[in-house]
Amino acid sequence: MNSTAEEYNLIFREKMYFNTVLTSVLMFLGVAGNAAALYLYAFRMSRTEDRYFIPFLAAVDLVACVFGCVFPIVINFYRLVFVWEDICKWMYFSVWCTSTLSAVMLFVIAIYRYLKVCRPDGRQMTMNKRRIALLCSVLGSIILSLPLLHFMGQIRGSVNLKNMDINVTSCGLKKERVGPFSNLYFLSGLVLSFINMVCTVALYIPIGLTIYKRFDSIRNSKRIRKLLGPTNSDLSDDRQSDSTSESRKEANLKYRHSLQNVLDTSVCKKKNSHRRRVRHNFTSMFITIVVFYVISYLPTLILIIVGSKDPFKFWFRLDDVSLNILVILKRSYIINHVVNPYIYGYFDLHFRRQFMQSVFICKEQSGGCIAASNWLLGTI
Questions:
Q1: Is the pLDDT of residue 220 over 70?
Q2: Cys-Cys link to 341, which of 33, 126, 267, 369 (CB 3.0-4.6 A)?
Q3: Sorting pLDDT into bands at 50, 70 and 90, what band is 377?
Q4: CA 205 to CA 269: how far, in whole Å?
Q5: pLDDT band for position 231 (50/70/90)?
Q6: Closest to 336 (Cα-Cα) out of 109, 96, 101, 65
Q7: Cβ–Cβ < 8 Å for 68, 334
Q8: CA distance linking residue 257 with residue 251, whole number of Å
């Protein structure tokens, strides 16, 4: 490798210091959060239907965080002098495979939540069906990512520095592999990603509407309770004997009975109401996860398309600020794997309590630890 390429690589490395630090922070947050979620959901918490997919998703996001962050950091350090052919192939395969698996699992979860919320009396995903869906997701992601081992590798090109053309070696789509097959593969991958994204969102739209309607009925039932309260007191205090008070009393009794009938038909028992509230909380949690999934993946997909024709001309003609912004946007898919455990902690109160109890291991030995954990639980 000529010295000029080494010098330009050092310049590029300095330009990407901010991105390298940011990616390192995201990796720490993602690995720590997903490791905690995997441990708690798999070993400390009861395995319910609502929590079935979460340990698997946490495991996938944990691996995706490692590969999705380590590879960009390596690229930041050796972008123009990347001489490791096999590492390039397997890193692209690992990042693409784990990201695809995470996205496909979100689609499977969307199907499960749709059947559970919108079609509670219809066919559901049994345990065997869920296991088959997970197995198909893993195998499908691996098969879809295998062609990258053929298409990706070292690429050689030239960049301009101070009116000098410098020969460099990078990691990406091999020029000799560019053709109708590679174009078809990457185009199909992008189309399938968009379809998966659209279908996942489309399933959660009726789920969200159903939850809104049910919570609206619960709010209406609370209003009815408030209306029933003063009516009873008025009836007990009214002892007037004239015809006007009697007719008012009779009208109030009819009004009370009609409200009670509405209340009886619209409100379930306390246990069923609690279970429904927990189920809706889990659905809201997965809706939030899908929102972050769409927001984080769209910039990545767009920039893959925009910068694919001539990556050397596109990326190395940018000023420092624009380069860092666009690189961050291209790697924004990492956010999808980082935020999920923190979303679990916000929506799943039982997960939050288990996490706090695990942090304060000395709860049986020191009352101060119990007091601190209780205080933190009350402030979150």
A1: no
A2: 33
A3: very low
A4: 28
A5: very low
A6: 65
A7: yes
A8: 10
